[in-house]
Each structure stands twice: as C-alpha cells, then as structure tokens.
Amino acid sequence: MPALYLLSVGMSAEMVGVFVQQVLADQGMAPGFRSAVLLAAGVTTAYLCVQFLFMGALQFLKPTRSRGVYICESLSQLAALLLLPYILRVSVVWPHPLMKEVEPAVYAGLFAVAHGFFKLVTFFAALRGVAGTRITSLFWVTTGGASGAAAYFCALAWLDVMSAARPSVTDEAGWYVAGSEWSLAREVPEGAVIRAPVEPYPNQCLVFRLSNLPPSGEELTPLERVFVTVNLEGKETTRVAQRVALERSGWSELRVPPNRIPAETKLCSVTWGVTAEPRWSALTGLRPAASGRRKLLISGPYQCETTAPDTSPNLVLIVVDGLGTDHISSLGKAEGTTPNLDRFIMSSTVFPNAYTPSPEPVAASMTVLTGVNPLRHGFLGTRRGPLSAEIKTVGELLDKAHYATAAFSDDRSEAREPSNKASSLERGIQSLDFATDTHPGDVLDRARGWIDQHADIKFMVTIRLESFFHRRELTPAVNPTLNIQQDLAEFDRRLGGFLQYLRDHELRKRTCIVLTSAHGGGMPGSGDELTEEVLRVPIMLCGPGLKREIRVEPVALQDIAPTVLRLAGREAPSACEGRDLSQAPREQEPISMTGVPLKLSLRSQRWRFTWQMDFHPFGANQRPWTGTVELYDLSKTKSGAELRNIASGNPNTVGGFRTKLEAYLDRQAAAYAATHKPETAATPETSGVTGKS
Q1: Is 239 exposed, middle or buried (0-12, 13-18, 19+ CB in 10 A)?
Q2: What tens digit of pLDDT does each residue of 496-536 get?
Q3: At what angle do helices 480-504 and 339-346 cross, to 10 degrees?
Q4: Can you tell me the distance from the alpha carbon of 413 to that of 361, in angstroms, rounded to the nearest whole number?
Q5: Strand ranges in 489-542 using DSSP code E only, listed in sequence order
C-alpha cells in the first residue's frame, strides 16, 4: 500500500505543479521554457514536501500499520484529477459568467475541498487503525526535507530567471521633451522596476512625472492611462497604487502624499503596467516579466516638501533681457510707461544701481544662477560651458533642499535641447519649459499654470524672458524711442498681471519674488556695449520679511544667488562671489565683460574704465597685456554733459584701474584652471583672434 500511495502522490504533485505553472504563466510569471520547467518543478517538489511532512507528523502522533490510512491518503491525491480539464484547456460552460473569469480559482477550490475531505478521513483512519511504531515517521520527514530542499533551490533558480527576463532600466537618465517641457527621465519598460533611495524628513511627498515616449519610427498607440505602483520600504513596507491619466502633450504628475510615506522610509521602488497590479502580486511581492514592447518615460522620484507654517518661502526669480534701470518710470526716464512695475517697487527692496557682469544674456543669466562671474563659470563670447561640477546652481542647491523646481524661457538665441548644454538652466531643474516662437506673456501664463498646480509644495520658479525690445525689425522711418515705449507698456501690462496674481494669491504670505534684468540694452544693436545704460539694471526683492526701501549702493548680479539661498534658509557655497543683499552696504566696484576678444569694464563711484584686451577670455593669459583703454567721468552725466574718453589725460587713474583688473584676471584664471582643462594660447586680435570654444 505505501507503493500505491507514493504513485498517487507523485501523480498528484505533477498535476498540481503543471496547474500552478499554467496559472502563473498566464500572469507573465513563466517567460520562456526554462522558467516554466523550474516553476513546475518547484511547485511539484514543494507539494511533495507538504504531503510527506503530513504523513511524518501523522505517523509520529498516531503510529499505525493500517492500510486504510494509505488508501484514504491515495484518494486525497487522486482529487488532483479535478484539475485535469484546466490543464488540458478543456472549454467548460459554467453556470455563471463570473466563474469563467475566475476559472483557475474554481478548479483550485474544488481540488482543495476534495483533497481536504479525504485528508480528514485519513486522520480518522489513523485514529482507528492498528497501532504501529514511530520509526516510519523518520522516513517521511527525511523524504519531506529532501523535497523541501529541492523546492527551495528550484525557487531560487526561477527567481534568477525571472530577474534576468525582467527588462532593465538604465541608471543614467536623459533629457526628454513632451510638448514644450523637458524633464530628466528614463525609458521604463512595462514591468521593469526603478529603485531609488529616499531621505526621511518631515512633510515630504514624492513626485513622479510621466509621459509617453516621443514619436519614433515604430509607432505604438499612445497610452491614455497607466497603473503605477510605488512600494516604500523601511521598517515597514507601504504600497501605493494609482491610476494616472497621461497628457497628450506634456507630463503628468503622480504624487505620494506625506500621510502615505512611513517615517523611516529609506527606499522606494516603482513599476507600471497598462492594467492594475493583481492583488496576489501585491501580497506576494512577485511581479510578472515584461508583457510587451511598451515603454513609459518616468522622471523622479523628486523629494519635495509640502508647505507648513515653518516651511521656507517659495521663490520666483524673473530675469528679463533688456530692462535697464532707466526703462522703469519711477527709477529712470520712461515717464508713465511702467505703472505696474512702479507699484511693485513701492512694496519691494529695490537696488537701482545693480550691474550685470556681461551684456551677453546667457553669460549674465548663468551669473544670476551661480553667483560667479563669466570668467569663472565659462559662459562668455562663443563659449557655452560646460559648467564645472564644482560650481553649483541655485536650482541644484534648492533641489537638494526639497524644493520643486521649474524654469520657463522663451529664449530662441540658442539650441534649446538641454543635452546641448546651451544654457545649463537644466542643472537642478525638474521641469524645464522652452517654448520658442511665442510671446513672453505666454511664458508667464505657463508659469502661472505650473504654480497653481504646485501651490501646496515648496517651489522655486525661474522665468527668463527675451527682450521685449527686439520683437520687430526697425527701419529708419520708424521711431525707435516710440517702439521702446510701446514695448515697455505691453511688457509692463503682462508682467504686472503676473505679479498681481502672485500678490492676490494665498501664496503671497510665503513667496519671495526677485526681479532683475540680464542687461539694459533696449535699443537694437546696443546689447554688447559696455556702457552705463547697457550695464545698469535693477534688482527688486519682494516678499515676507523684506523691507520696502530703495538702496542706492552699487551691487552686482552675482549678489542674487546668495540672497536667494539665504531666503531659502541655505548657505551660499564657497565658490559664490556675491554677497547677501540683506546685509549692510559695502563698497564694491562691479566688473563687466564681453568676449571674444575679451573686453573688461570696471565701474567705480565716479569712473567707468574699459579695457579692450587682445586675447581669448579662456586662453592662456600672456603678459604684457595690451589693448585699448577708455576712461569716462560719470559724474558729468548729472549735468547732461556728453561723455568723452579722457584716458590719455589721466595716466595715474588709468594705471590704478589696470592694476586692479590685472589682479582680477589673475584670480579668475587661477579659479577657472582649478575646475577646467587648460586652454591653448590664443592668437592676438591683430592676427585674427581664434580660440577653443
């Protein structure tokens, strides 16, 4: 009779193994022949382990020599024949449609009921049977242990095959565009898993951005919705499953709110599918392999801080090309043209005597973002970086401070793909919106929409607007001054509406606004001149804790980065050259520049000294430095006198300024060489300036 039992239990184990293998294969858990064999073998040996251990326990508790025990136990194994129709894929007409949908569960239930019934009969047969010895229990326990070991190794091999079959995700993200928005994302196949460390801190939420892949040669119908599962692992594991509707043109956001994130979460894993994750998968932690060629762009996770009473303020940084101090009615010559900016000034800390480090918009913008001058960050003339990793942008530092970061720009002067490193705006930015061929007012509208969506999260928004004064071609018959006034009025209206939106919103209680300009060259053709009109720009600071005052001391755009970081409760990095504008005034002589070739200009209280150099700004500095110098007495502007170059009549003043600029060049060359590869020496301009760019 034991032989009959062994034959029946072997047959039953094989049928159960094949049944489970087919059920899981339908769920994508057996990709390929090897995984199917390992899965069936593992279930078979695990089933044998359970049956043999049952017999061992029975013989230990109630030893018996009765044949009835083996007969009843064989009948319990023959219950596996109920699984045969499913194994053979026999079509069964069920009395209710629901039974068809859960067909594997119906077969498994029938088998479990019949198997359990005869198991109960076996137990009663043992109670009434002829007593035997316990020595036989040792055989069944040993056999069960061997079967369990075989099942364990089959399971390990099956998991390895599943892991290898599951699509992988590259660790390095790339820039992808959806609509006009760029984001640093990865292509994630369906079923693949993204894992990322999580830093525990209060009030945090996790933000993911999702989008269909851009159109390619092999077109698949864009997905309209996906199911995303986020597992948060720490002392306990929390599962968050959400359905996300995908935008037709743009990115969709998925947020895991603070109340769903355990306090000590250290790791999160993310997977997605076109259908919801089955409950059994959530309970077991087993996920199917890839089910197709579908891929999704996933950006993040970004750890952002939700707003609270002690949260540092939101930050809105606006940089306008061509808005000089003189263009603002209350600060300059454009009387009655900018009423909205005038009202904004009345509630702000205003620095009317701020100076740009360069009239080149990209160079000035990078200084605003880094707090270092163009000779240090490497964006000047024909050079477009790349920005050294040792120089941190405001976006990078605030991203690490758990801000949601976004940048908006209508700049068309450069290639806008972030991979080209044309502006390095992308450093630390989670959402980068470059919309070409559009009006700056539209850029403000898109920024407003983003702010509305993120009003409950601590955020920093950077907005760069191209000059309003270069929108139309000017002819000799057109009055340039009239055009500038018209453009200023339109700019004031659109920007004034955006500023009023921020001030009317509940956000005003915890939002700081910084408004400045890359240069003041409103007139076409004046953008690269190192003149007072071009280099003098305003800086306006408005927000909680900021005074309403006008401070006339000279400052520089380098001062914006440390000021913004201070408002956010962060320390400025050591490489930052600027100072916090909330500090007491200090004497400084702002230096501005253009290239190629390099041209420097120093602004003192009375003088503007300009030195046209004869070499590439990032070439080897070879002494003696030569070039043309200019010296202007700016005190004459108060009387309206025409400025003229008086360098030849003031050799001592010129010599003093040259000494200052030579020391400045030495410091900047040393700082640049410490973080960049050395450049080859450049040919002087007299022979045609050339240089590596």
Answers
A1: middle
A2: 999 999 988 888 889 999 999 999 876 544 556 889 889 99
A3: 50
A4: 10
A5: 511-519, 536-542
